Amino acid sequence: xxxxxxxxxxxxxxxxxxxxxxxxxTMPFNAELAAGTLSPERFTRYIVQDAHYLIGFGRALSLAxxxxxxxxxxxxxxxxxxxxxxxxxxxxxxxxxxxxxxPETFAATPLTPPCDHYVSYLLATAYAEPFEVLLGALLxxxxxxxxxxxxxxxxxxxxxxxRAWIDTYAGEEFGLAVAAMIAATDAAxxxxxxxxxxxxxxxxxxxxxxxxxxxNGAYDGxxxxx
Length: 226
Prior knowledge:
The chain is mostly helical. It is 81% helix and 0% strand. It has a single domain (39-220), classed as Heme Oxygenase, Chain A. The protein is globular. It comes from Methylobacterium trifolii.
């Protein structure tokens, strides 16, 4: 994982989860996405679930805004919630058109077990945990997507069919949003008790694992067993 400019908490979180990130970076979904060989079926499965996920992610970010201790935090997380719903779903909307996914199809497609787990975890953390722990849970989605996006960008050819996705998450605008979230998390971690800091780390690690689970679920296509 990259940690340039990161503060004490985020540097430590990267170090603790470096092996998990490397597993995510090299997993079949991302390797094939970078090569442009990922099947349309797998990518379609991914974008449908990601669109569902962004709704829950936006709700969790809105709750972070409500819990923020200062006006700057309220603005930061409110904007992030808006971007999760409006900006990123606009990207998905383009893919929906390209892959022939009707709104009715999206609405009728249930959350897969990995997506349901991830959304439920973020919302439970948003409602039940302190602000600092919630930031630990939210940060991996931002940071890992930026790192994966930059890594794939460096490997992908100009004719890659998933170029729009790659360019979004490797772009400067998303990078600035990620840097702001890292800074906010480090600021929240400053001065907290060792016990609360460890809870932040546990949340970060669990969300990192759920990032892998989400991509792997899209690749394998495993649904509910019953």
